[in-house]
Amino acid sequence: xxxxxxxxxxxxxxxxxxxxxxxxxxxxxxxxxxxxxxxxxxxxxxxxxxxxxxxxxxxxxxxxxxxxxxxxxxxxxxxxxxxxxxxxxxxxxxxxxxxxxxxxxxxxxxxxxxxxxxxxxxxxxxxxxxxxxxxxxxxxxxxxxxxxxxxxxxxxxxxxxxxxxxxxxxxxxxxxxxxxxxxxxxxxxxxxxxxxxxxxxxxxxxxx
Amino acid sequence: xxxxxxxxxxxxxxxxxxxxxxxxxxxxxxxxxxxxxxxxxxxxxxxxxxxxxxxxxxxxxxxxxxxxxxxxxxxxxxxxxxxxxxxxxxxxxxxxxxxxxxxxxxxxxxxxxxxxxxxxxxxxxxxxxxxxxxxxxxxxxxxxxxxxxxxxxxxxxxxxxxxxxxxxxxxxxxxxxxxxxxxxxxxxxxxxxxxxxxxxxxxxxxxx
DNA sequence: TTTTGCGTTAACAAAATTGTTAGATAAAAT
DNA sequence: ATTTTATCTAACAATTTTGTTAACGCAAAA
Lengths: 208, 208
What we know:
2 copies of one chain form a homodimer. The radius of gyration of chain A is 20 Å and the shape is globular. Residues 1-5 of chain A have low confidence and may be disordered. In chain A, 74% of the residues lie in helices and 0% in strands. The longest helix of chain A has 27 residues, at 119-145. By secondary structure, chain A is mostly helical. In chain A, helix 8 (154-170) packs antiparallel against helix 10 (186-205). Chain A has helices spanning 9-28, 31-38, 42-49, 52-72, 82-99, 103-113, 119-145, 154-170, 172-175, 186-205. Chains A and B meet through helix 1, helix 6, helix 7, helix 8 and helix 9 of A and helix 1, helix 6, helix 7, helix 8 and helix 9 of B. The structure holds a DNA duplex.
């Protein structure tokens, strides 16, 4: 046979499942439509992955690390001075979300609908966050003392960053037709939006 | 019989369905668990509402107006001067979201999973938004000309407002255990968060 | 008192969705 | 070439979820 691009069906099914789960969630996704999207019969899906549940697990495993990062990356690089660390954190976090734009909505929906399922991942996020909050708040207080920035609660600030960086991707498809030309060029819009978010956060912490 | 609070089963089912649909979405909700939550057999659900679909419709109808408002209310009162209009808009919009904290996530999920279904509602939002964008941008440009505020794109600004006002409610249950005492008292947290969002937006448009 | 109609239940039926299997086909190994 | 192994299909089976119905009770109307 000719040297064809041999993307295995196993892989095709996984990719189709990813899209289907990300858009419709676990409950909304149908094994048959996943199979259809992958161009195989649904028997193949069960042959390779046995159950819908196991197929889903595979996807969660694949993204667990990215999920945790997406919840934490806004805290930036601990070695930088706090103001730059925050500026850099917003930017880096935005890029991370932009690389996996469907992931946050998917994960938040899943954890709301079936929290038990994600206890391990969740505990991990919690413990890391707890430690980082404390040290960042400390640095912020010190910088505020020196008059370098406004004194703010790091938790509030991080919630703002997550909101600004994640929500535009949640609302993306909904907003696009409403926004005229603003979102016509996706790449360009994403760059603008990132700059806007950095600007907002920098203004928020600027000493006035 | 004693003067009991006679909440009809019909009503109980509707309320149970609301919760179930809001948390799990159309696909995740089960007619049997809706019925269970309402304390009736699932036959009653079909007796009153015939199908899951029709029950769902009833809830969409009930909230259609609120949904549209939630997407638009951030634009505030057209009679106010633009800076105050925005300040007031952020605040009023936040309150609206806080009154129906589960609604935005629910609606966004639904419209992403099955867009066809919401064409009417969506078209309505689009047409209203289009007009308001133009007139608000005009006022912003004028105010900026007069040095009263920074010149900004109203669409970007509104996306920021929606992000800040809606996302905290999406992430609420997830964030609460991570945030230490910050979210321990819900009412207090909501007030703080509202003030924070107003502050962020005001700083964003402040002339510098 | 009888009738009428609503609310209710339990059992059943239908449909949708997930999961299995026996065997066909092709590819790889011996 | 033959055995073995992996891939695949179609038909079927099981399960879950939704929807229906027949029969019963009960309260209000006739």
